[in-house]
Design goal:
Blueprint: E1 5-10, H1 14-32, H2 40-46, E2 51-53, H3 56-71, H4 81-86, H5 93-98, E3 117-119, E4 122-124, H6 134-151, E5 156-161, E6 164-169, E7 177-181, E8 191-195, E9 198-204, E10 209-211, E11 217-219, E12 236-241, H7 244-256, H8 258-268, E13 271-275, E14 281-283
Antiparallel strand pairs: 1-5, 2-4, 3-4, 5-6, 6-9, 7-8, 9-12, 10-11, 12-13, 13-14
Helix pairs in contact: 1-6, 3-7, 6-7, 7-8
Length: about 300
């Protein structure tokens, strides 16, 4: 997943639960990484056109990613793997950063979610189409691990998978949870959000960056219309939703197209904020219920979105 994961456990056998969470993330990474040839995602991509047996977690991931594509009208597209590879993201991010200039690799991998089929225990991609879990995999992993920690005896849990934060149950001080949204240019947080049970996903084009072979800066946010890294859009976007995967989907949409993203969030009953180039901050109409008041979170309903 190319990210640092932070886990907070309240109550229960905390050492055992933290160990479980770490092992669970390692297990999901092994199933979903497109950089591991034996992962379930790599097998899916190699066998596009045929049904491939997969775990329930992988079937759930693909199903949610397709649902995100449908709900956003294609602005979120998990089948942009070919475009990501052509932009130079053809190896783990730490290896890209170690290169003086990333290669731009040709890829004939096509895209299209309409033909993806998810059956019990198996998934079929359309022939020639590649699937990239991307950020939605981090959000869904946070959802899975948070739920399992409560099932195993924790009173509350927080999982932060590279900016996709999922919280549930009792917070460290007995109430809910306060989640800080980092400012893209300052040390002080951009906002403090109070949640009882839900997720905050933050996405930015300022972190996962590399220099392409043509000298242009590449990043992971691909514009579905051009198939290239977006040259417009926002610098940072955060979305509050009931689950991590859903927050991640809409954070990408808001980052790619802030105007349409804000309108879409309002229609979906979701909340978020966006930082435009130059530093202007815009928030959706529903975010106010989550903003902390005098350092104390005003808790929203247990579910949102």
């Amino acid at each position: 997943m190319g990210s640092v994961v932070h886990i907070v456990v309240v109550g229960g056998g905390r050492d055992d639960l933290r160990t479980h969470a770490q092992r669970r993330f390692e297990d999901l990474e092994a199933r979903w990484s497109r950089f591991r040839t034996n992962s379930e995602i790599s097998r899916l991509n190699r066998s596009a056109g045929a049904f491939v047996p997969v775990s329930g977690e992988t079937a759930g991931l693909v199903g949610r990613a397709v649902e995100g594509w449908r709900r956003t009208g294609g602005l979120f597209d998990p089948t942009l793997l070919g475009a990501v590879i052509r932009a130079g993201y053809d190896r783990p991010l730490d290896q890209l950063r170690a290169l003086s200039r990333a290669s731009t690799t040709e890829s004939g991998v096509d895209r299209g979610c309409a033909g993806i089929a998810v059956a019990r225990g198996a998934v079929r991609l359309p022939a020639g189409v590649g699937f990239d879990p991307g950020g939605v995999g981090k959000g869904y992993a946070a959802d899975i691990v948070c739920a399992e920690l409560l099932q195993l005896g924790a009173r509350g849990a927080l999982v932060n998978a590279g900016g996709d934060v999922r919280v549930t149950g009792e917070g460290p001080e007995g109430g809910g949870w306060t989640v800080a949204v980092s400012h893209p240019h300052r040390e002080r947080p951009l906002a403090m959000l109070g949640l009882a049970d839900g997720a905050v996903a933050t996405s930015t084009t300022l972190v996962r960056r590399w220099q392409q072979a043509d000298g242009q800066v590449g990043h992971h946010l691909i514009d579905p219309e051009t198939g290239r890294p977006s040259t417009e859009g926002a610098e940072l976007a955060s979305v509050v939703a009931s689950e991590g995967w859903l927050a991640e989907v809409w954070a990408k949409v808001l980052l790619l197209d802030p105007r349409q993203g804000v309108e879409s969030l309002d229609r979906e009953g979701l909340s978020g904020l966006v930082v435009h180039p130059g530093g202007r901050v815009e928030i959706t109409s529903g975010l106010g219920v989550f903003l902390c008041d005098g350092g104390r979170p005003r808790l929203a309903a247990s579910r949102t979105g």
